[in-house]
Design goal:
The chain is α/β, with parallel strands linked by helices. The chain has helices spanning 6-13, 22-33, 50-58, 81-93, 106-109, 128-135, 156-162, 191-198, 201-215, 219-224, and strands spanning 40-44, 64-68, 99-102, 117-122, 141-149, 172-178, 181-186. The protein binds S-adenosylmethionine. S-adenosylmethionine binds next to helix 3 and helix 5.
Length: 234
């Protein structure tokens, strides 16, 4: 069964380690609920399942979340045991039957993909080349379907990855953001959509400056920029 409310879903997700803020989880939930009666949702980058649990709790009918993550073995995202934690967290939330895991790199899966999607959530590898490839999954998103990009304005790699969306022939319209979780919609961008995206660049520069200040342990200076948390801006 899907959870009846966001609060019920987030009660399961809140204790799962990850970088998704409660407001961003709410945006994922609303987007999944708005994606149709039995949506097909593709998530790139699942880690321990914080976002997966929120998405899978929101889908109705025979909806499914396809979670793509190779569970890379590195200093930040842990080890192959991350997959065990992911599976355990899904089981605890009672949503494992709504999730199909593809334990592989998004860039390896995409060339073989054929199915239409109602919602795409991108939160995988944060380098320019991978982000540009991940945006190519947009080709499978139905017109008007949402594409959500985490860290869109708080990471050098992700922001440089989305910059081609300012150019001609781009397949996505930029709508809004919650923190650095950006909402795009499949469709041809207008000049106003492009201008909206461009206007986020000063905010991106501010977030990168804050990340540098936090690395230099200059939290007082970061506070002067309005950043009160010891954590990176997401
Ligand atoms: C920021 S974490 C995802 C967090 C998750 N969405 C959440 O809210 O808890 C990034 C994840 O991307 C995965 N990843 C790295 N390279 C990837 C790739 N090429 N394709 C898919 N996932 C990848 C990592 O294994 C890691 O689990």
């Amino acid at each position: 069964m899907s959870a009846d409310s966001f609060d019920a879903a987030f009660a399961h997700a809140a204790d799962i380690p990850g970088w998704l803020t409660p407001d961003q989880a709410r945006l994922l939930w609303d987007s999944a609920r708005g994606a149709g009666a039995a949506p097909r949702i593709l998530e790139i980058g699942s880690y321990q399942g914080r976002s997966t649990v929120v998405l899978a709790s929101a889908v109705t009918g025979d909806g499914r979340v396809i979670a793509v993550d190779p569970f890379v073995d590195d200093w930040k995202y842990g080890s192959p045991q991350t997959r065990d934690k992911f599976e355990e967290h899904l089981r605890r939330a009672g949503v494992e039957h709504r999730v199909r895991l593809i334990a592989d790199h998004s860039t390896a899966v995409r060339p073989l993909w054929t199915d239409p999607l109602d919602l795409l959530f991108i939160d995988g590898k944060h380098d320019v080349v991978t982000v540009r490839d991940d945006l190519r999954w947009t080709a499978y998103v139905r017109p008007g379907g949402r594409v959500l990009v985490h860290d869109c304005f708080s990471s050098v790699g992700v922001t440089l990855g989305v910059l081609p969306l300012l150019g001609p022939g781009a397949p996505l319209r930029y709508l809004s953001r919650t923190g650095s979780l950006a909402v795009f919609e499949a469709g041809t961008p207008t000049a106003a959509d492009r201008a909206r995206l461009l206007r986020e660049m000063p905010w991106w520069a501010r977030n990168i400056a804050i990340k540098v200040l936090l690395r230099l342990r200059l939290r007082g200076v970061a506070r002067a920029f309005g950043h009160d948390s010891p954590y990176d801006p997401y």
